[in-house]
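Exercise 7.
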Amino acid sequence: MTLHDISIPLAAGTPEWPGDTPYSCGWAWEIAKGASVNVASFTTSPHVGTHADAPLHVKDGAPAADALPLARFAGPARVVSLDAVPSLGDTRIERLLLRTGRSIAGGAFPASWPVLPLDTVRALLARGLVLLGVDAPSVDERESKSLPLHHCLFDGGAAIVENLDLRGVPDGAYDLIALPLKLTGLDAAPLRAALRPLP
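Solution. The predicted structure, written as tokens, is:
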């Protein structure tokens, strides 16, 4: 079975949102220092690397990461470049993964990135969208404080995945497997995202 790993590695130097908690790793026990096992510890924001936002991220009292419905994160998906979205017409797409060309996969946090128009997101929701994923750090613009696309997607019952690595994946139809970790009470959860090409 062919699987495309579309996750950003969590490692020292993985770009975080400016001001957020970066990834760091240490060792509680090490075989080289006489322990019977190696045991690591790490600290990071759940938004570093590939992750699913939870509604709690943008609204107090909203569901947290452990309440994210798993079914939204697995199933048929389509990868398209952002400028190709208008050509989709009225096609029903349950899971849409957008290539913006502003991924952190290259090792730097982008200064800006393009986003879908709000009316387009509403139209996609009306046609059955249950998940929107982007290779950029956010579905909203970098400087947005109102986060209209986050609110629209969550209000419409859709999931959000950010910081995908779509560089080696051609546009087309796939099966998505991208289950978020069950982290109780958090506003986001890291996930390992993979695509299986459909025949």
